[in-house]
Structures
1.
Amino acid sequence: MGFKRFIATRLITMFGVLMITVLLTIALVGSNMDTILVRGVSFQVREEITENRALVQGFKDIEEFDAFVQSKINQRVKELGLDEPWYSPQRLGLTLYKILILDFGHATFLTSDSGSSNVKDIIFEKLPRTILLFTTATIIISIIGIFLGAYSGSKIRSKVDRLTSSFAVVSSSFPVWWVGMLMIFVFAFTYQIFPARATPTIPITDPGYYGALLYHMILPITTIVIIGFGAWAYLVRNFMVGIMQEDFIMAKRAIGIEEKKIVYTHALKNAAPPILTVLALSLSGSLGGAIITEAVFDWPGMGRLYFEAISVMDLPVIIGSTYILTVFFLASIFLADILYGYFDPRVKTGS
Amino acid sequence: MSSFTSNEILQEFMKNKIGLVGVGILMGLITISIITAITIPAETFREWNNPTIWISYPKTSQPSWVNYFLIEKIPEHKILDSPAIGTQTSGEISVISQRFVTNYQYDSFPSDFSHEYTAKYSGTPLFEMSVTRPDRLELQLISSSLPLSQEYNVYHERVFSTDNSIRKNLQQYQDNFEFLIEDMSAEDIIFSRTDINEVLKGDYVFTVNLYGVDSENKIEESSFIIGGKAFGLMGTDELRRDLAIGLLLGTPLALFIGISVAVGSVVMGLVYGVYAGFKGKYTDETMMRLNDVVYALPALPFLIILVATISNSIFLMVGFLMIFGWVGIAKVSRSMALQIKTRQYVEASKLMGQKDRTIIFKHVIPQLLPYAFASIAISVPAAITTEAGLSFLGLGDPSFPTWGQILHDANIFGAAARGLWWWVVPPGIMIAITGLAFVFIGNALDTIANPRLKR
């Protein structure tokens, strides 16, 4: 079984999972969506008819008018295929196909900052901001984590090692968003250094917008880094502890290579595959966990979009965002798998 | 992996200091839960979001113990509900009087005061309220008749310090004060020194009298509230709720959610993984592919959709959390089962013709128990924080106030940016402490289950 086949089976599984996710989402929100869509259609039809004065005056009484409106609505519902339930094969197939080509339709309530109600526009406006915030944070976390982890891994039971390990345990029990609230309390209320809300007040067209955005980013990034780096350092430390006991490290020591060089070049290089795998996973994981953190800091990204969409039950947005989040999540699992399979050949043979 | 007897595990555990700390914290939390169950009536659960029962409480008050650390004492919110009652009858006229005594020792004025009572009477009895200050000055606050009623009548009223007649009555005491009291609020006058407008400390006695010709008159459920900025053990929130009660109610809920989700998902994962590993071949392959699918589902978005569309009942939420909890445990149990399967006693019992189910439950799963217990303890914090996160987003079960919901309300009212630390800090600390207790226990169990981690 070659590497290509390994990739192929993985890809097929991932595609299957993606479809199942979308199907599950549609199944969960489908019946609601139909009711909302039908209501929207009947509202639209009624408005169109009442706007046409000549037509309205042609009716004798209100009953005739209502009957006419109802027949028009039924006709429109049939045209759109809404008379069949959401789980009928044609509709399901059509919905899946549309989602695959990133056609999520129009949002019911929400709009993008530029005013478009196309779900695709909304998502692609929010996505870069989330990536900006969380990718930056994840990169900072991994750099601190790798160096701190390598250091404490090479000096087991030293003060730094103990501190790192206990910090990792303690910090993982605090919810990130709660630490975010504390940070707002300390740095926005007690010492008014940073703004509590992460949305810049100046318009996006202003040249100073991106500077303001960066300034607003400091508080959320600090929060994510504080909570995240401990666990990372602990993980890297555990990898390092294993590697530092390997024979080839002993051999390098015996030749008289400097300890620092052994730790940061030879040992760290060998710990790279699992570290890269975890990095890939945590990059996508941060996108999912972003929902609550963004809600705390009012960061105008995917997480807050998702939250807003759920609070007003804007179904096209919910389905679209779930799809995008899943795609990212699966892509990184896939990447992690590939990286691991590439670095550790035992995985791909399945033994 | 070697097998243990439960006695050995206990002995090993007693040597682990951190593990014991974890058990200690857990014991504390269980004690709190028991105290909660005994002292707080079960209806309070449902009344948490009902504003009417919190009406006598102050808005966003600090915990009263902050006064120990302050030089300028902030006024404490006082609810005086057991007055000294006296009745007098002279001829036809009867007087019911109630005296509320409070020792006011704070450095700023109360924010308001109010008196709530239910009177049972007939005719038009006269209602009077007055206050005697520490300097013996007596101020008449209210003197008015209750509405006329021929029959025996139940009358409920709440008199606020902003009441117009209190205002008018106080103006006649201008001569006693050396400064203008015309535009001042009632509490600022009543609790003020006469020479300058500063707080006069000492005993204040508020007296309420009801004069009537009928001796059947009664005042019931009478309580006098002196509004302050500090209240109770943990203060109150914007909706006047006593946060101490909220934190107490949250403890058993968090333990329930955490433990039931952890036990449920570990049991599911264990049985699933062991069965797949033990059966092997196609069964294993299919079951593990299903496992892969659940593993690849984005948990938080899905949980949000499930809670938002199906139900936010706390019991269903526990079920939803289990759906995403068992996956990792199933993977590990499977690989452990693959190892145990090849042992001779398992082979032997197979040859003896024992049923698969018997072998799995009698010979394989008992070997995994130390791992299972460690996983249960380690899974608890994640379950608690995830539920807290969902509640924080406003998807919690409104009939059960969890710590996450308290934080949700705090966030809605911008508590962090307004500096209301007593609303933000304690719930998070409770979440973290509960999580830590289980992490400590789990780590201790883990070192027993996997001795190799010890080095």
2.
Amino acid sequence: MSRGLGKDVLLSVGIDIGTSTTQVIFSHLTIQDMSSGFSVPRFEIVDKQIVYKSGIHTTPLLSPTRIDMAAVRGIVAGEYAKAGVDRTTIGTGAVVITGETARKENANEVVHYLSDFAGDFVVAAAGPELESLIAGRGAGADTYAKEHSTTVANYDVGGGTSNLAMFDRGRLVAATCLDIGGRLIRVDGGQITYVAPKIQELADSEGIRVRAGDRADIPTLKRVCQAMTRMLEMSLGLTPKSAFFPRIRTEQDKDIVLPGVPAFISFSGGVADHIYGSPDDSDPFRYGDIGVLLGQAIRESAALKLITRITPNETIRATVVGAGTHIAEISGSTIEYDESLLPLKNVPILKLNPADEASPTAMRQAIREKLEWFRLDGELQLVAIAFQGPRSPSFKQVGQLAQSIMEGAAELLAEGFPLVVISENDLAKVLGQAIRAALPGQRGFVCIDAVGVDSGDYVDIGTPTAKGRVLPVVVKTLLFR
Amino acid sequence: MYQENDVRDMVRAALSELLAAQGGSAPVAAPVSAGATLAATTVEEGFCPDVTAVSTKDEFHVPDPENREGYLAMKQSTVGRIGVWRAGPRYNTWSMLHFRADHATAQDAVFGEVPEEFPAQQGFIAGQTLCTSKDEFLTRPDLGRKLNDETKRLFAEKLPKGAKVTIMVADGLSSAAMVNIPDIVPAIKQGLKGFGIDVGPIPYVKYGRVGAMDDLGPLVGSDVVCLLIGERPGLATGESMSAYMAYQPSADRPESWRTVVSNIYSGGTPPAEAGAHVATIIKKILDAKVSGVDLSL
Amino acid sequence: MKLKTNLLGKTYAFRDVKDVLAKANELKSGDQLAGIAAETAQERIAAKVVLANMLVSDVRNNPVVPYEQDEVTRIIQDDVNERIYEEIKNWTMAELREYILDNSRTAAEIRRLSRGLTSEVVAGVCKLMSNLDLMLGAKTAVVTAHCNTTIGAPGTFATRLQPNHPTDDPDGILASVMEGFAYGSGDAVLGLNPVDDSLGSVQRILQMFDDFRNKWEIPTQTCVLAHVTTQMEAVQKGSPADLIFQSIAGSELGNEAFGLTAQMLQDAKDLMATKGTCTGPNVMYFETGQGSELSSDAHHGADQVTMEARCYGFAKRYEPFLVNTVVGFIGPEYLYDSKQVTRAGLEDHFMGKLTGISMGCDACYTNHIKADQNDIENLATLLVAAGCNYVMGIPHGDDIMLMYQCTGYHEAESLRQLFGKTAIPEFDEWMKKMGLITEDRKLTKRFGDASIFLK
């Protein structure tokens, strides 16, 4: 016996514009029908192979507050050319803008511009917790936790931020981000040229004097790095949190409490190589910053040594690998859609709750009411109507579902928007056919399943793959609401 | 399913009842007397727990595992009966009864008969193969592939000739699979209607095997015959149904000429969703004028 | 040779040896389906009488498929040791039966006898045996084989750990693997029936098995039961395999239905000698089952017991480490109920052992046959009493991929306890090292706790 409908390969791109570095990777996501061939197809992503890794470029800045968009574009275009990749062949992927770079004035503009430039269906994703998840997966911490049935924390220590993600047997259980990074103090010609304000505050609170313009005194900078390392220790629950700790969290209103001390820890990000011991630590300022010293401080931390250290699959590339290989999902394999509507980007989710799904009337009413939430300046916008759906619906239930959705979304339809429907349970094809039978005129729609979304999420739906059986999907979730 | 605590509580309850019956003292060896005194039994309201209520993925009996969380997570990756524990080297009572209940479900599906009134209730035209009993059906697959003469006459008279698509229903190896019919049939019809194809009256064949569609094919002359038939059940999957489709089927065609969609039931592919999928496959067969291994899906 | 007899005032005449062999069979629905079974119970006994009077040479000289037509016949006939055959060719089949059952018979004598028998002779003597005869005969015919460990030694009893999963999900397979080893199952082989038998899939699973075995230092064998050519390709590409598996039939035509030739098996065996991960010398694993030839119309009008015996004669050439009949899988049109399944299991085990191969049995049933778990526990118990080398082990006896039921992980230790046997010695030591059993083979609280492998 062999698999039903065979395989397809989706080319995925990952682009990471970080505080210090900009990187690009291409990977092949293998999508395979996991059914026996004698049942309804069931495609899954079965393999992820990185086929190209770019060099590590310095993130180009026009000024301390502006990214040099043209130069970033040049880097990305250059890597596409070197890899021999035509942007029209990109099936999925993500551009992430991370660390301090995410806070530049034109960050949003850059990331959206790039997501269009990089391919028809490449999403822009950001947010500190999502970055933590992406880096943790890129480092392989989730896989290690799953394979060894244990808990693993990955700390991605970069130039501007340190992203923590903790996995329990493969599942993300906690994530946070601290403003700790190797490039937050810069050094040139034996002199400190820049100290990030928060690091300055941290040093002050510890009674350490460090200012731009000071001589780069190694013992002093080591003490600063030790103070920074103590913040990491606190975030992991190894030591009690100081009064200053909340200040160092990137999102100051979000406290971090791990469900327990993880059994294992891995470090990724640009600083990681110096945590694991780099062959060349002789010049502590070789990058013109305190990255090497911070790495050493983390390596030597007695508290951090309490957690067994494991080597990640990726260090400096963890985030870009995570973005390129671990963001895309695929829809269920029996779905209905009009290809002309695809790809769809940044569609907000209108999620129905179990009470809304309790009866056809409740459903119709709930869609009508919740649609109003998406009215901006009196104008409706495209939304995706999402619900769990019954586990094995009767044919009659499906008909009612189609009716409720169309009546509930009547206003949306009247204003000419296409219908986008997402269910968790397997019913999209029969529901889609029921909608097609009842939809006025040749109005387009997309009806997919096997995708879990929530209120507040945005979804991107790509162009069909695997002979039109499945659609690539990226759910942009705000974690831990 | 019983957890350890439930069992402990039950034991305690039973013990305290015993103590109460004996006037609150601990049980002591009663002097041997002529004839035992049997306590009166009270029949209580309520039900014993349903051993099939917990899915095999969630049924867990290991009392003190080294890594409980890990074990439970591991169980989610398979419907195989693991984490079932033991009594000595033998099976735990509850998992054993669950297994036997699931086998009973499968056996009842195979050896049970579809109610006589079912075809009429569904508006089907009822016929039969050359098999005259369940036993003959099970041991003579050759006879289950041929319609009997009376059925052939009936179908020739009642079914339209040369319809584009004929849907056919047979009991096959699971009478219980007929539960899917009210959801899958209208879903197929709805899907086909979307392609502008109408479906006529549906023939039902008692004691039918898959090959019976090859006997029906030439009789009705349809371009596509789609047979909905009960599958040989697995444990606890007594309701599973398959849809076999073939372009202009006949006895001359090899088995590889059939396209099949199996595992249709509420715990597999839901029947309504499967019907929508089947409709699109039928359309592909009609367009390609081939079926089975030659059909590129 | 006589083909006629009188029985209870009636005369019975048979067409030829093939007809006698078919009608002498115990009642099987498959022989009825083929239209070759005895019409009455009396005719069955008459056939047995005629068979008992035949000489070994009569049966050898009338193979049920002609030598010229069939490579299986040629392999069976060409592998006969003519010197030994000369000694026994003039025995009646009744004498052969009594030689085997003689109380002074040793395992070595039966092994020597084996080399003078063709499969038709093996099948013939089987038809003269009652169930208990089959058990006693098989018990004398000890056959051991060595891959990484030695299977079949008296006092031991092994199981195959069969961790099948409906989608080959690696986590799901591994969950079953852990559960099985925690129950002391898997000393015969860790072997998966894959859903996806493509090369990539086979390679992935072989690697996963090898990694797990090495991590926990388990003294056993590993195998993925895809087609022989796929496994060979995997081994050639460097995948770790201890055994190469193939389903085989008792005629060339039957093997064709499996996409198989004798040359392929020879090539596989040669490949394993140079590229296998095992110690050897026994590197092959075969599965068979009564009725499979009839189901592919490759039975040449012969009965299913004789065709089954021919599988073993064919298998013997490749000196397999494991051969098992999958005895209740095929359905009630071949083996009607538990009585027929039980008989077939005992026949197959006996015939395998008499042929000289390391014989095990997948004692199983599908859901459309009149049998249940009690019947299969009975058969497994009879088989262990008869010295069967191994049976299957699956979670709670429920195979969620092949959709049938057979012996569960729990049966391994239950049957060892019942008969005072151990696992294969190295594996038994491993069970002690893992703390699954104590030095005196009592189960510990770790026995049955798969989470001990979650590390």
3.
Amino acid sequence: MSDFFTEAILIATFASGVRLAVPLLLASLGETFGQRSGVLNLGVDGIMLLGAFGGYYTVLKTGNVWYGLIAGIGIGVLFGLLSALISVTLLAEQGISGIGVYLFGLGMSDLLFLKLVGTPTPISKFPKLDIPGLSDIPWLGGMFFQHSVIVYLAFALVPLSTFVINRTTFGMRIRSVGENPEAADSLGVSVAGVRWATVTIGGTLAGVAGATLAIDLGIFQQNLTNAQGFIAIALVYFGAWRPIGVMLGSLLYGFVNALVLQLKTLEVIPPDLSNFAAMAPAIITILALVIVARRFRQPTALTKPFTRGT
Amino acid sequence: MRSKKWSWVALVFAVALIAAACGDDDSSTTTSPDAPATTAASGGTETTAAAAEALRIAVVSPSSETDLAFTQSIVDAVNVIAAERGIPEENIDVTENMFNIDDAAAALRDYASQGFDLVIAHGSQYGGSLEEIAPDFPDVSFAWGTAADTKGLDNVFAYEAASDEGGYVLGVMAAALTESNIIGVVGPIEVGDAKLYVDGFVAGAEANNSGATVRVVYTDSFSDVALASEAAQAHVAAGADAMSGTAQMVVGAVSVANDEGVLWFGTQANQSSLGDIVVASQVYKWEVILRDILDNIDNGVLGGEIYVVDLENGGEVIEFNDAYDLPADVRQLAEDTIAGIIDGSISTGG
Amino acid sequence: MAETPMLEMRGITKRFPGVLANDNVDFDVFAGEVHTLLGENGAGKSTLMKILYGMYQADEGEILLNGESVDIPSPTVAIEHNIGMIHQHFMLVDTLTVAENVALGLPSSRGFLTDLDVVSEHIVELGEQYGLEIDPAAEVWQLAVGQKQRVEIIKALYREARLLILDEPTAVLTPQEVDQLFDTLRQLTADGRGLIFISHKLHEVLALSNRITVLRQGRVTGNTTTEGATRHSLAEMMVGREVKLAPDKPEVETGGAALQIRDLEVIGDRGNVMVDGLDLDVHAGEILGIAGVSGNGQRELAETIGGLRQSNRGSITIAGVDTTNKPPIEMRHAGLAYVPEGRMKNGSIGAFTVSENLLLIDHADDQFLSRGLYDFGAIREHCQALVEEFAVKTPTLETPVKSLSGGNIQKLILARELSGTPQVLIASQPTRGVDIGAAEYIHKRLVEQREEGTAILVISEDLDEVFALSDRIAVIYEGQIMGVVDPADATREQLGLMMAGIRPESVAD
């Protein structure tokens, strides 16, 4: 136990939690936009996988991680638009159509990997950036300010998303459409337009999340996300549909995972309890969900397709 | 070809439906004569003529055939055997990524009813399905691994790897090369082949260097690459300068080893392509036992045997990475250890 | 009145599959007047207004605004033409603030950033001008119903509406709030706006309107100025025949208290106290009406008596049997009949047939069973008799209930509930959304049941109904009875004050 409380280990644990949180944060921020406007996109994990492969493959071929990120964005936009077409314009049952996108992403990313790459081959990763000044702070510097560039970008999206949702006319429209689309429609707000935009934002961030995951790991493997997209969706509920809540949820999930792993590594948790410890992140998240669900209401129109005059 | 496959699927479904409809009492009398009869009609007679020159082999496996680990090892072996025996490519079929056991069962039954001569169920988790499927196809030979028993079925071969042996050798090498005297291991779930390998690795490391600390962490997932990566980071943070790991999610850990300049010891397939920090890999040559299995099938024996690949029978080899500059004394130590295990003077039991 | 009407709708026809919703309807509004559109549910009022507001497109006909023909393809265009609509079900986003609701859909003076401070200022100005005071920063879900309506009106005024459509705006208001609303509306017409008022509350129509147009089955069946119109003449235009607005009520000797409620406390869906230490007696042979603004515990009270909801404290006795927190079946055995507020939600099963719905309670009764199996002959006979007795209009007994009209479903539920001669009848909103003909029939049956000696509790938000039916009126406010009055002595104004939470003692100065 005493091993655990060394500075190096504690810093490493927190840093690990931050890294684990980042893909979840990106994906769940995107999903927050969709859900605030009333659209549940269960295809997040599929789009993440496609973004992950696209990002990985681009870096593999070009050696430039930024091109990889752009590939993730492009794939995300494309599949965000596709998801919007399915759920907003074609009014598909949201609980089912997203699973279709997921299965497509799972299968297609694996097939493309098999045909285009073959064996997992390491690629370059995002460059590390120590934030000048902040990274020198004892303890905190090592935990939060010695990460790869993409980590800071992901966290910068949190205040930006909060601002967009709460302080812009677009954000006001998102909230109104998710809460009472009939009312928004009666005031001339294009319900479909707003939802196309939010679902596309969600797809884009899912694509970025996938690309980030692959480029930060420097490797691709079939089903690389390991269902992180679904955890991201749960985190949106956990975060009570607020970017800051989503961030706290992602960090909590990441930290608990990192902590359990570190405690197992140092054998603070005996190996025979390892299975139980592995469930901790899920259990803690579910408990938090239960508590939060009692306090916050979900967007009233969530999962409800909108057509005028119904 | 495709339409034939689907008509077979339909037939299997029909039989299954009849069996279900007849209930438990009748199923033994209705299904059993039916299913083998249909198999014999086509699976048996139709393909026997072709099989005289070339067998048909199918593989059902939980991960990707390019996973640089478990699945790739069996697919590589089947390809080696196919080349040796001149089996044409179209006689080999692989269904990968069957991490869902029900899907895997459907694939196994599909292959058996298509008249494949050998259906390889490459995953210990497929045992339950095989127990149900194999009796329905007495003319088809099944191979199941990694597993140490044939479930009492005379058309099932079992195979496993003495992965503790290779693990022991790699552990000895890691202990010889570490400078920090801290070695990290990333495992998936503490069962089967993975546990055997990890235990062997730890035993080897501790036997060769009593001052070394070997830390093992099981991520409790075969597929979580990100968690494997973080596990490796945790080892590095705790001072490890040599690491090993097993299962397909381990590429995440190798990637960290690459970044941090930490030595890596691979298993299940040659992982040298992952970087020049890879010192050596334990590689399974399942072809060693596949040869025996196919000989048995040729002689009309469709199962009942249990095979183990190990250092002695050459089914397990240590492949050194040419890109890593391995000191000659450590290389010698490895060779001596291999020889010791083969002649029995070294026990991997730790 | 100006010479050119601000709105003229000419020959509007709108067809839906199988229905002619509007048939060659003419309608106009002059600046400065209130023109009421009167008609029963399904008469085509809403369709006509949705066409005007751009939510539907007319198949035939033309709309002229200030003499010029216009095309209104969407609400946005209607708003551009200075048409505003106050919807019956408020078109408000509960989680947004008042200012956000008002600003929604409008361009901001700061581009993509919101300008809620500017909007708020203007809201306060409008509020002062028209007596619509409201806190722009309040979130809508916190507002009382009357305040929400103010927000709706402000929304329209903020968009500079000159022509305002008010769809049943008084449905959820207390009489005092109605008076306040009417003051505001009169001020709006005084400023030269035109108002279209949709209502079926005849006395309100007479109080507010300048002109009245009556629709029946999609057609204009009457056109009158308010002078010379009476409630009876309007009701006859709506229904097409003579109508009794209040049933004849013979004197009935009342008996003992068949329904006794003591110190009842019930928690609502959101965890707050909805019925708060309520005491009530209903005697055999009387109709006790409960009046109140919706959401003051009426629904919870009815559900608790009916066994659909558990009480926290207190007791309920039906015909001498303590049924507190007993399952519904025991209440039935004690002699309770229950016509719930939600016809389709709790009162019937839409996908079931007429017969099946009639048998929902008695399905295990011996008279319908023969050696343990259903005796379909007996069932048929029983159901046929009920359908005929209660004048339920249905093609067959096997028709699914969801394809019947609201009035017929309500009659069907009444037929089922009254088939067992109950000791106590709870009728929650018995005629809400029901056509006048059906309402008239339902009222008649309730009065007849009273003569049979049943104790009847009628819960209604329609004060006219409460006055017409009740022998005594109890007013509920925040889960408590504010007082019980005799309808012969009470006035609407007295009831209105009690509905707003003011006890009669403090009123009588």
